[in-house]
Amino acid sequence: MANLIEQAKQNADALLQQAYLDAAKAGELPEGAVLSGTVEIPKDVQNGDFAANHAMVCARSLHMAPRKIAEALAAHSRLEDSFFSSVSVAGPGFINFRLSDRWYGAVLHAIREEGMDYGHVDDGQGRTVNVEFVSANPTGPMHLGNARGGVLGDALASVLSFAGWKVSREFYVNDAGNQIEKFATSIDARYQQLLLGDQAPAFPEDGYHGEDIVELAKAFLEEEGDGWLSKPVSERHAAMADFGLKRNIPRMEADLLRYGVKYDRWFFESELHESGFVKETVDRLTELGFTYEKDGALWLRTAEILGSKMLAEGKSEEAIAKLDLKDDVLRRSNGFYTYFAADIAYHRNKLEVRGFDKAINIWGADHHGHIARLKGAMDALDLDGEHRLDIVLMQLVKLMRDGEPVTMSKRSGKAIALSDLLDEVPVDAARYFFNSRPESPVEFDLDLAVRQDSENPVYYVQYAHARICTLIAALAAQGHRPEDGAADASLLTTPEERELIKQLAALPEEIRQAARDYDPSRMNRYVTELATRFHKFYTVCRIKDAEEGVLEARLALCDSVRRVLEIALGIIGVSAPEKM
């Protein structure tokens, strides 16, 4: 797949390598040196579209002033059949390259030939990655934090897929442990209140107080009747937990589908316990010498595992001691395994049993302290947690209306649920707004999200796509179609046209960097800049009444922008409407 920006950098470097050999042969530069340096896009493109620092990097080894080296390299650069029309020297020794018509034409040709595959890169080389995200507690409705995690995980999975990874999206269902017992206890308490009224036991203070629990208790009573009061508590709670989960999990799945998120697998924590895999994993850690018993419980030597790793990284024993590292319980004195034990088993399942090359989790920022412990446990199991397990932490969401925070749902009087949000704002707006930098808090402006003007960033970008579709349809009625011929890039010479093509060329590199940094929000910034450059081009450059040849070239350029907008918006799960 074409990455024309990367190809231009490689082309410039290759030209300089050959120029050095020619200059050395001519006696203008010392022979026998290794020419090195980088080629980058400068912030100021007045002097050139790409700038190389080879002359400055190699000044010491060549024992010459950087400016003299740069002048020799520029003089011997053979630009014929390259992507460049000129080369010059600026400042202390920067070598600047100006792009040629050939490069601009290659960008439009790549988009035309690759179609909806344009933008793909092969950094992943077909390796497998499991992206686990949302994984909300199935004891209640999903809230705004889950909404943010949903789009960040889904968009990251798409970015990784475009970057050459084989991606599996996964939801981890915590259907075992203390929270499920609390869930069952809460339903039971409401069930007894419905049947016994004032005679019912007091509702537990640490129970789930939401209206959704009341609704589940009513549904259980309606379907199962009042006979469960006489049955043993353990049997009643098991039935109520099963009843509640069988209703909540499909609702979660439906909400996420409405939000545009579809998983390859819903993995249930109960599978790990029922199969004995949690026990087997804890036994493995014991065999490896990483556990000990104390007060009837089984503990993981977390402090020793992390401390040894820090020592190997060069930290002093004194510095490590100040961290006051703690060990973790794996099995309680009552024989039940902890959530941490199940989490270790789950990630062992990902990396060892299912064999993913890498596992990525999207977590809330409050889980920060859990990262090193889990990675350390993977290292203890010889699964290279440091390199094969990555955690993306996301900050909180603040919902705003009329400049004021919104903390409660009008409908339920509780925290805003995902379903409440999607009743109020379009899915496209929700996904676009939430797909911001994971490490930054989000202020979600409800008023802005529903505005239909250029102040709304998602509307601004979608309008650019719709505007192009309208233009293409109008020109098609006059007999002009972008697919009828390739664009003649030599006719696209205005600054607005050239800057627009450069932005089109940037998509593969943006995808590569978004995948590298686990930052799908780069796609938001990319499409916004592409829309801005298109609107500027559309204002300055005539299309419908342009002279022959120029009209066809500009129409092809518009069609390339349309296609790339659709691709990039699709990566973040936002639609590209043809009319608005």
Distance between the termini: 32 Å
Largest sheet: number of strands, sense, barrel closure: 5 strands, parallel
Fraction of residues in H or I helices: 40-55%
Count of alpha/pi helices: 24
Overall pLDDT level = 95
C-alpha geometry: flat
Uncertain residue ranges? none
- Structural class determined from secondary elements: alpha/beta
The radius of gyration computed from the alpha-carbon positions, rounded to a whole number of angstroms, is 30 Å
Spatial order of the strands forming the largest sheet = 7-6-5-11-12
Approximate strand percentage: 5-15%
Total strands? 15
Describe this structure in words.
The protein has 580 residues and is an alpha/beta fold. Helix content is 52%, strand content 12%. The longest helix has 26 residues. The protein is flat and about 95 Å long.
List keywords for this structure.
alpha/beta; 5-stranded parallel sheet; 4-stranded antiparallel sheet; single chain; 580 residues
Quick take:
The protein is of the alpha/beta class. Helices cover 52% and strands 12% of the residues.
What are the SSEs and their pairings?
Elements: H1 4-25, E1 39-40, E2 50-52, H2 54-57, H3 59-62, H4 66-75, E3 84-90, E4 94-99, H5 101-114, E5 128-132, H6 144-162, E6 166-173, H7 178-196, H8 211-224, H9 233-258, E7 265-268, H10 269-274, H11 277-287, E8 291-294, E9 297-300, H12 302-312, H13 317-322, E10 328-331, H14 339-353, E11 358-364, H15 368-380, H16 385-388, E12 389-394, E13 397-401, E14 404-406, H17 418-424, H18 427-434, E15 442-445, H19 446-449, H20 457-477, H21 495-505, H22 507-517, H23 521-540, H24 550-571
Parallel strand pairs: 5-6, 5-11, 6-7, 11-12, 13-15
Antiparallel strand pairs: 1-2, 2-4, 3-4, 8-9, 9-10, 13-14
Helix pairs in contact: 1-4, 6-18, 6-22, 7-8, 7-9, 11-14, 12-15, 20-23, 20-24, 21-23, 21-24, 22-23, 23-24
